[in-house]
UniProtKB/TrEMBL annotation:
InterPro entries: ADH-like_C, ADH-like_N, ER, GroES-like_sf, NAD(P)-bd_dom_sf. It comes from the Bacteria. The keyword Transmembrane does not apply. This is Zinc-binding alcohol dehydrogenase family protein. Signal peptide: none annotated. Keywords: NADP, Oxidoreductase. It holds the Pfam family ADH_zinc_N. Residues 10-319 form the Enoyl reductase (ER) domain.
Length: 321
């Protein structure tokens, strides 16, 4: 089968389009014929070696949309079932293996390319809004990287709740119209958001801030977080750790809450199925959608990574297998 693999860490050009063996399934696993995979910033970090040591050759990629090719006789899945999944050894390949707990059937009415936007971005966003941030319609919220995949979904989910004031940050104001169409009320850059949030809230600060950037954005977010407010930290696309002092939280009754979908897939996968059901219903009923920025062929994964690293895109970048 065709796959994109790494034989070393480095820039996008280390992605190698090769022929490798179709993987074998083990206990409680299924083989999936891939249709699409999404490109996530975690793929970039893993390619660069920021995710730890690599056992080369290795494959990257978090999620897949496709059809069941092979399943155990006692499985709840059958050949031909349309699914989304989190494969166990990467997703940049024509066939992937996944644990059944991390495989979810999708309705026939959902196109594969739209389904491919769901596993990482939409499931993560739903948990962040409803379980971690516990957003209320009366909250003022800040969504960093509002034009990205997770940001695009966080905005839409917040609007569904009825949130009246959504402040979104972007790296480039060329993305302002895009995020406003999604539902952002006030758009600002990373350089101006602290002052703008305080201005928009009569110096009270935002109730919930969603931070996937970290670095100095974390400390600047604390500066405009309301009393009893919550900073939700779920990534560090800046490549730098965010910092705060204990004095930033105890007297102000602020909360810092972290979440990792990767940790949850590993340690509490059963938590995901109910969320997937809710998210699929939202997509099927056209209450939410994620705009697709570009679709690349598997052999052009290098170009997909270069686009992600340029940050010059809006929505989700997919790879067609």
């Amino acid at each position: 089968m065709k796959a994109v693999i790494l034989n070393e860490f480095g820039d996008a050009n280390v992605l190698s389009y090769e022929d490798i063996q179709i993987p074998k399934i083990g206990n409680n696993e299924v083989l999936i014929k891939s249709s699409y995979t999404s490109v996530n910033y975690a793929d970039i970090k893993k390619r660069l070696g920021n995710k730890g040591e690599g056992n080369f050759p290795l494959m990257i990629g978090l999620d897949v949309a496709g059809t069941i090719e092979e399943a155990p006789s006692n499985s709840s899945f059958s050949k031909g079932d349309r699914v989304i999944a989190f494969p166990k050894n990467g997703s940049y390949a024509e066939y992937v293996v996944a644990n059944e707990q991390l495989v979810f059937k999708i309705p026939d009415s959902l196109l594969f390319e739209q389904a491919a936007t769901i596993p990482t971005v939409s499931i993560l966003s739903y948990i962040l809004i409803h379980e971690i941030g516990q957003v209320d319609k009366n909250d003022t919220i800040v969504i960093h990287s509002a034009a990205g995949g997770v940001g695009s979904m966080l905005v839409q989910l917040a609007k569904l709740i009825g949130v009246q004031k959504i402040i979104g940050t972007v790296g480039n104001l060329d993305k302002e119209d895009y995020v406003k169409k999604l539902g952002v009320d006030i758009v600002c850059t990373y350089e101006t958001f602290t002052e703008e949030v305080l201005k928009q809230t009569n110096n009270q600060g935002a109730n919930v801030i969603f931070d996937s950037v970290a670095g100095e954005i974390t400390s600047r977010s604390i500066e405009c977080l309301a009393l009893y407010g919550t900073l939700v930290q779920f990534g560090n696309s800046s490549g730098k750790a965010g910092t705060f002092k204990t004095s930033d939280v105890h007297s102000s009754c602020r909360n810092i809450k972290g979440f990792s979908l990767g940790t949850t897939r590993t340690h509490d996968p059963a938590r995901l199925a109910p969320v997937v059901n809710e998210v699929l219903e939202l997509f099927v009923s056209n209450k939410v959608s994620i705009p697709i920025a570009r679709i690349f062929h598997l052999k052009d994964a290098v170009l997909a990574h270069q686009l992600i690293e340029s940050r010059n895109y809006k929505g989700k970048v997919l790879i067609k297998i």
